[in-house]
C-alpha cells in the first residue's frame, strides 16, 4: 500500500494504525490484567456465596484473609521500593488469589530467565575490550571526586569505562540534530548501527532511510533495531523484510504476540546511532516527525541530544552489539567493531565522558543511581528536564533533600501532556517537592521530551531515562554523563532559555487545580509502580 493511499491523522499515524495501537496497548497492558483479575475474583466470591451459602463463604473469605496476611508479611520484608510494595499489597488485598499469582509470576520473571543469562555472558565476553581508563579516573579524582566515585561504580556494576578524549556537541532540539545526523550518515564507510524506541514513517525517517539504503548498496554494513511497540501503528509488521530487501539488517525487539509473558514489560527505550565507531548520537530524539517538529503532536516538541566524537563512541558500539546479540544463539565477535573505533577528537579534548547502559535484567538501577548521585552531591544547583514525573520514595527524597540543603533544584515538565492520566499523576508530587523548595515549571508552548540533568556548571546527563517507574525499573535505557566538558554551559543556557518560555507553578495554582484532576492523580499514584 502506498503512503498516499493511507489516511493519516494529525499525529502522523494512519487511522488504522492508531486504532491498532490503541487496541493492542490495552490488550497487552498490566492494567488490563489487573482489572481482569479483579473481575474474576469478584465473580469467584459471588459464586461461592450463591452455590455454597453464607457459612462456606465465611470460611472462604477467612482463609483468603489469612493467606493474604502471610503473603504481606513476606512482602514487608522484601527489599523492594516501598511504593512498589504498597501498590502490590493493595492489589493482593482486592484480589488475593490472582494477585499473589501475578505477583509471584512477575517476580519469577520466567519470560526473561534465558535472556538474563545470555546478557551476562555477552557482557563478560565484551569486558576484555572495555578496560577502565584509570588515567581518566585519576584525573577526575583530583578535580571531581564524586564523579570519580560514580565512574568506579558504573564500571564495577555495568562495565562501562570513563573516557577523557571525547568531544561532545549538544543539540537543544531535534530540529537541529537531524541535519547533523544526515551529514554524519553520509560520511559512513564501514558500519551504521541504529537502535531506537520509535521509528515512524515520515519525512525524518524517509530521509534517513534513503541514506541507509544508498550506503548499504555501497557496501557499508547497516543494522537497524527498534522496539516491538512500533508495530502498533508506526511501521508495518513486515517492515524488517522491506529493509532486508534494501540490504539493511533489521531486528524488532520483543514483538507483541497473542500470549502473555512477563518479558513484554521490558521495552527497548534507548536512542543510539553509531557511525563507523567515529561518532555516536544519544538523547531523547526518536526517528519520527514530531521529534523534529515536522508534525504537530502536543504543540512544540522540545527534545535534546548529544553527538560524541572520540573514544567514548566505543561504549555505544558495545551497547548496540549487546542488545543485538540477545536473541542470537551465539554471540558474534564484537572486536572488529570495537577495535574499529578510532578517536576523531584530539587527546586535548577537555573533560570526561561516561556513557552508560541500564538494563531491567540486572539488579542495578544505573539510570536512577546516576540521577541520585547528581542530586546528593550538588552544591549550587540541579536543573532537570523530564517528560514524566512518577517518583519512587528514594528519588523524591533525594530531590527534597537537595532543596532542603539550599541547592537550587528546578524541574521543567510539559505544559501540554501526551498522556493526561500520567500528567495528573505527576502533579501529585508537586506540593511535597515545592514545600521543600523545589521550583517547578511547565513548558507552555508544548511537550518536553528531553531527559537531562545539569548541575553546578560541571556535571550533566543527556540520555533516554525519564523520571518514571518504566524508565527507572522496566526499560532498557542509556545515557551520557558529562563532567568538565565545555558543552555543559550550552546545556545550562538551553535550560534557562526554555524556562523563560514556561510558566512557574505556584502554590495558588495547585489550590486552583480542578478536583477531578486531583482525584485521578491520587488514585493513579496508588498504582503508579504497576502502570
What does this 3D model show about the protein?
- This protein is an alpha/beta fold and 531 residues long.
- It has three domains: 27-108, no CATH class; 112-151 and 161-349, Endonuclease, Chain A; 366-530, 2-Layer Sandwich (Endonuclease, Chain A), CATH 3.30.870.10.
- Helix content is 48%, strand content 17%.
- It has helices spanning 15-27, 30-76, 82-94, 96-108, 113-127, 134-143, 145-158, 174-186, 203-217, 239-245, 313-325, 335-340, 366-377, 393-404, 420-427, 430-435, 469-474, 488-499, 507-512, 515-526; strands spanning 166-171, 191-196, 221-227, 249-253, 271-275, 279-283, 300-302, 305-310, 352-358, 381-385, 408-414, 439-443, 446-448, 452-455, 459-463, 477-483, 503-504.
- Strands 9-16-15-14-10-11-12-17 form an eight-stranded mixed β-sheet, with helices on both faces.
- Helix 14 (393-404) links the parallel strand 10 (381-385) and strand 11 (408-414).
Number of helices: 20
* Radius of gyration from the alpha-carbon trace, in angstroms: 24 Å
The beta-strand count equals 17
What percentage of the residues does DSSP assign to strands (E)?
A: 15-25%
Total domain units: 3
CATH class of the largest domain: Alpha Beta
Q: Per the principal axes of the C-alpha atoms, what is the gross shape?
A: globular
- Side-by-side strand order of the widest sheet: 9-16-15-14-10-11-12-17
Q: What profile does the largest beta sheet have?
A: 8 strands, mixed
Structural class: alpha/beta
Helix percentage range: 40-55%
Kindly report how far apart the N and C termini lie. 35 Å
Q: Quaternary status of these chains?
A: single chain
The CATH superfamily of the largest domain turns out to be Endonuclease Chain A
**CATH topology of the largest domain, which one?**
Endonuclease, Chain A
Poorly predicted ranges: 1-28
Q: Judging by the overall fold, what is the CATH architecture of the largest domain?
A: 2-Layer Sandwich
Average residue pLDDT: 86
Amino acid at each position: 500500500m502506498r503512503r498516499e493511499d493511507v489516511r493519516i491523522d494529525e499525529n502522523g499515524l494512519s487511522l488504522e494504525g492508531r486504532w491498532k495501537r490503541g487496541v493492542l496497548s490495552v490488550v497487552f497492558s498490566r492494567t488490563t490484567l489487573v482489572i481482569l483479575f479483579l473481575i474474576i475474583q469478584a465473580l469467584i466470591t459471588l459464586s461461592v456465596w450463591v452455590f455454597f451459602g453464607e457459612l462456606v463463604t465465611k470460611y472462604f473469605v477467612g482463609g483468603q484473609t489469612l493467606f493474604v496476611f502471610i503473603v504481606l508479611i513476606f512482602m514487608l520484608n522484601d527489599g523492594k521500593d516501598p511504593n512498589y510494595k504498597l501498590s502490590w499489597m493493595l492489589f493482593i488485598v482486592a484480589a488475593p488469589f490472582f494477585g499473589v499469582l501475578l505477583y509471584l509470576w512477575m517476580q519469577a520473571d520466567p519470560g526473561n530467565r534465558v535472556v538474563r543469562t545470555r546478557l551476562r555472558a555477552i557482557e563478560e565476553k565484551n569486558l576484555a575490550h572495555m578496560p577502565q581508563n584509570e588515567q581518566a579516573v585519576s584525573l577526575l579524582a583530583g578535580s571531581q571526586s564524586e564523579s570519580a566515585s560514580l565512574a568506579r561504580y558504573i564500571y564495577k556494576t555495568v562495565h562501562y569505562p570513563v573516557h577523557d578524549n571525547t568531544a561532545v556537541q549538544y543539540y537543544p532540539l531535534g530540529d537541529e540534530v537531524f541535519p547533523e545526523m544526515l551529514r554524519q550518515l553520509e560520511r559512513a564507510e564501514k558500519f551504521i548501527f541504529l537502535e531506537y524506541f520509535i521509528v515512524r514513517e515520515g519525512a525524518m525517517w524517509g530521509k534517513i532511510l534513503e541514506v541507509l539504503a544508498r550506503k548499504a548498496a555501497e557496501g557499508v554494513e547497516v543494522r537497524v533495531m527498534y522496539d516491538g511497540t512500533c508495530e502498533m501503528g508506526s511501521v508495518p509488521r513486515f517492515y524488517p523484510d522491506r529493509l532486508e530487501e534494501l540490504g539493511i539488517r533489521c531486528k524488532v525487539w520483543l514483538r507483541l504476540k497473542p500470549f502473555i509473558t512477563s518479558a513484554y514489560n521490558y521495552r527497548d527505550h534507548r536512542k543510539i546511532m553509531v557511525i563507523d565507531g567515529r561518532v555516536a548520537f544519544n538523547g531523547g530524539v526518536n526517528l519520527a516527525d514530531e521529534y523534529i517538529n515536522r508534525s504537530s503532536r502536543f504543540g512544540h516538541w522540545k527534545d535534546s541530544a548529544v553527538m560524541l566524537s572520540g573514544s567514548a563512541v566505543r561504549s555505544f558500539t558495545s551497547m548496540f552489539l549487546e542488545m543485538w546479540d540477545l536473541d542470537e544463539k551465539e554471540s558474534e565477535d564484537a572486536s572488529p567493531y570495537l577495535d574499529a573505533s578510532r578517536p576523531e577528537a584530539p587527546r586535548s579534548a577537555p573533560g570526561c565522558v561516561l556513557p552508560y547502559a541500564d538494563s531491567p535484567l540486572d539488579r542495578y538501577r544505573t539510570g536512577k543511581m546516576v540521577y541520585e548521585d547528581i542530586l546528593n552531591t550538588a552544591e549550587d544547583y540541579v536543573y532537570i528536564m523530564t517528560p514524566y514525573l512518577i517518583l519512587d520514595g528514594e528519588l523524591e527524597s533525594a530531590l527534597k533533600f537537595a532543596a532542603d540543603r539550599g541547592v537550587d533544584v528546578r524541574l521543567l515538565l510539559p505544559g501540554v501532556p501526551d498522556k493526561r492520566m500520567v500528567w495528573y499523576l505527576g502533579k501529585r508530587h508537586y506540593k511535597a517537592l515545592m514545600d521543600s523548595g523545589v521550583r517547578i515549571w511547565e513548558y507552555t508552548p508544548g511537550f518536553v521530551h528531553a531527559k537531562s540533568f545539569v548541575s553546578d556548571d560541571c556535571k550533566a546527563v543527556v540520555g533516554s531515562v525519564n523520571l518514571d517507574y518504566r524508565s527507572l525499573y522496566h526499560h532498557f535505557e542509556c545515557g551520557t554523563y558529562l563532567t568538565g566538558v565545555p558543552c555543559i554551559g550550552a546545556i545550562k543556557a538551553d535550560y534557562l532559555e526554555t524556562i523563560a518560555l514556561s510558566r512557574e507553578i505556584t502554590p495558588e495554582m495547585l489550590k486552583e487545580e480542578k478536583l477531578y484532576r486531583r482525584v485521578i492523580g491520587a488514585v493513579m499514584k496508588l498504582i503508579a509502580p504497576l502502570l
